[in-house]
Each structure stands twice: as C-alpha cells, then as structure tokens.
Amino acid sequence: MRPFSALADFFYPPACSVCGISTGGHRGLCAKCWSGIRFIERPYCEVLGIPFSHDLGAGILSAEAIAHPPPFDRLRSAATHDHAARDLVHGLKYRDRTDLAPMMAAWMLRASDGTVESCDALIPVPLHRTRMLARKFNQAAELARHMARLSGKPLLAATLIRVKRTSQQVGLGAKAREDNVRGAFAIAKGCENDIFGKRIVLVDDVYTTGATVAAASRTLRKAGAAEITVLTFARALSEPI
Question: Domain spans of the chain?
Fold first, then answer.
C-alpha cells in the first residue's frame, strides 16, 4: 500500500456506500447491503424489462408492453427500486452523493444489454433550469457522464432540454404524472442533427410510471431518432410476473 493511500485510509477509512459501516475498500457495499440489491437479470420482457419469474422463451413480451406499447424501443434497468438500491438513488439525488455515480453507472452499463455499445449517443433526461439552479446538478447527467467515460460514447447533455417547469413527480398518480410532463421537452435549437437517424440511449435515475421518459422519448422520436433505449439505474416493481 502506498503511504498516501494508507494515510487517506487512516483519516477516511473505507465504508459501505449505503450504511456507512467499515468495509475492505472504497466505493463498495457491505455484505448486508450488497445482498439487498435485486439486480434485474433475464428472463425479462424485451421491451419494458419487467422480470419474469420463469423463462417463457426468447422474445416474450409482457402484457403491459403488448397492451400499451411505449414510445421507446426498450427499457433496461440495473436493479429494482427498493432496499439498498433505493438508498443509493436517494443518496445521489437528495444528499448530493455524486461519489455514488461511478459505481451506479458501471452497473447500468452492465444492464444495458449491449445497447450503449451500439448507440450513437447518450442523452440524460434534463432538469428545468430553475430546478437545476436549486439542486446544482442533474443526477441523470451525472450517471450519463460516467457511462460516457466508461464506454467512450458521446454525451449530449445539452441537446434535449426541459422547456416546461413541472411539479415534482413524487406523490402524483400515473395520469397526473403524464399530464405534468406533457410538452415538457424540446430539442435545443441547432441540435436537430444530433438526433435525426441516430440510436439514442436516454438516461435517468429511476423508472416509476414511465411518464417522464415517455414524454422525452416522444420528443426524440419526433426529431427523427432511429432507435431509443431508456436506461435507468432502478425501476419500481412489485414482484416478477
């Protein structure tokens, strides 16, 4: 161990990124918190990424994807939005824990099922400028920035903009969420060629009802995006179907 590393560990000992107890290394989780992460693995719906409790065969879609096809091509998420995964999301979003973003981004890259490697660009779901001033950073952009660094793919952080100041989605029902974000997004002037004919990965921290990423996807689709993959760190889910 290098002297500087030993000194740093003395003053800032390695701790679990979720609960804070001592661990063997930095930017990791303790065994208890790690066991609480429910990673989303196949088998799952090829469109909405909803995990199935049994393997129903290749290309099987969920009833929700068949009944209500989304405006994007596919959704992938690293983990279910509960336990330690929810704590990581809240730490990044509400407690300014930007140090969590590299680890979360690496898990998202693994969950992307090759779509990041084959995309033309990463685009984060934007915040309205007033919320950006209050929060000081965009958690979706932080995750996208680290994925761009890890994958070597372009990050287009200013191409998709939020033109409508919406209410917080937390606490709203599905219909209210949809109404809240209708017309909220636009393509920045002069950035149309960033989207037209391109394979886009749209990045956000959490997928709940899907209203926000659906509204953003419609804007990207209207601008001529050839393919849209929504990639989030976590997604709300009751149980595998």
Answer: 1-35, 41-235
Say if domain 41-235 classifies as CATH 3.90.580: no
The answer to whether 232 and 72 have CB atoms below 8 angstroms apart is no
Distance CA 168, CA 96 (A): 18
Sheet with 74-80, strands from edge to edge, namely: 74-80, 227-235, 199-207, 121-124
Burial of 95 (0-12, 13-18, 19+ CB in 10 A): exposed
In this predicted model, what pLDDT tens digit does every residue of 14-56 receive, in sequence order? 899 999 998 877 678 999 999 999 999 999 999 999 999 889 8
Closest to 185 measured CA to CA, from 210, 207, 152, 213: 213
Per the rule left: phi > 0, alpha: psi between -120 and 50, beta: everything else, 112 is alpha
Least confident among 24-33, 119-128, 172-181: 172-181
First-last CA distance in the chain: 48
Secondary structure letter of residue 226 according to DSSP: S
At residue 4, the pLDDT reads 44
Q: Which residues pair with 77 in a beta bridge?
A: 232
**Contacts with 82 (C-beta within 8 Å, 6 or more apart), sequence order:** 38
Q: Report the distance separating Cα 77 and Cα 72, nearest Å.
A: 14
